Amino acid sequence: MALKLAARTEPRRPPAERLLAEIRARAAALGLVPPRVTEPRLPPEVGERLRALVAAGMHGEMDWLARDPEIRADPARLWPEARSALVTGISYAPERDPLPELGLRDRGYISVYARNRDYHDILKGRLKELAGLLAARTKAAVKVFVDTAPLMEKPLAQRAGLGWQGKHTNLVSRVHGSWLFLGAILTNAELPRDPPERDHCGSCRRCLEICPTRAFPAPYRLDPRRCISYLTIEHKGPIPRDLRPLLGNRVYGCDDCLAVCPWNKFARVAREAGLRARPELVAPPLAELARLDDAAFRKLFAGSPIKRIGRDRFLRNVTIAIGNSEKPELLPVVEERLRDASPLVRGAAVWALSRLAPPERVAAWRLRLEPFESSAEVRAEWAVVQRWSPSRSITNLPSSK
Q1: Nearest alpha carbon to residue 278 among 121, 115, 101, 120
Q2: CB count, 10 Å around CB of 217?
Q3: Which of 63, 98, 265, 359 has the smallest CB count inside 10 Å?
Q4: What are the domain boundaries of the chain?
Q5: Which residue spans within 131-246 are E strands per DSSP?
Q6: Which tens digits make up the pLDDT trace of 185-234?
Q7: By C-alpha distance, which of 284, 291, 333 is closest to 311?
């Protein structure tokens, strides 16, 4: 008599686990890192570090960091009904190491993240789709955050187990490296928590040692006022003179501390077409960038985060990069910018002129332009350039007309 064997069945997962599996599968299809879940809380030391940074004035011109510090340090205050936080991200890893571009002195270096579309638009759309799925399955309320509120995504991501904040203060993942844009979904649904990630930096100090401006006073601490990303993006006025030579050819942002992280060997190249570099934004010629008027600037950087800082701040950066180029053939471009409508650009051009031109040419330009300069900041730039009294007539200067 044949025995009838019972069919083996897999144990059914709890409804919440099945829901998370569905959400993670959908996230993968959208090109996102599988979301991890934590409670909408941060350890007390996160708020303490933020308050200490602001108290020391290290936030510089980033006034938004000083606003609502209690809310920023406690996501639950942002939305008291929230019970769970889902944290995810999207890779923007480049196809190749970008650091060799720093050696192209007549070319500008644009941070990898800014070489195409603004990631906020891309990531927010994907998060809304995930949040919609969560809301449809649970009937719970959801809110999506991509730099749209005082929410500290990096420590929240570490608490959720997505990665850890490395010695450079950016998030690092053993699976995805450090080329990650982060976003979060808060919900009033109760979801199972994931364990936090521990630190895996070990004794490595590559990110600290490569920083050109020594912006890390200690591991896990950043002084934004010395960070090239801050200086070229957030800082609105003239860049401090002692830091200008250290910017090299970086005209928007800096990737040094990210690019040298050994965990990036696991990073997957960006799948999203909008996050892959546009060819014209990879090492663009400085001379071409320096000649952008406002309309051309807006056209070139349409849809890019670079557009946010405006033409004048960007050309300040470009002109400083030209001053660092050691390329005298770029001197005519600098001389054009000496008469720029923006005092911010004119001041940078004075500095660049002093780096590229012989002393007698600097002196001739100073005698021609300084008496008619209306900006105190630009006059201050002229005041500190090398003063030289020519003993012969100066020739080969452009017409003053």
Answers
A1: 115
A2: 11
A3: 265
A4: 285-393
A5: 142-145, 164-165, 171-172, 180-187
A6: 999 999 999 999 999 999 999 999 999 999 999 999 999 999 999 999 99
A7: 291
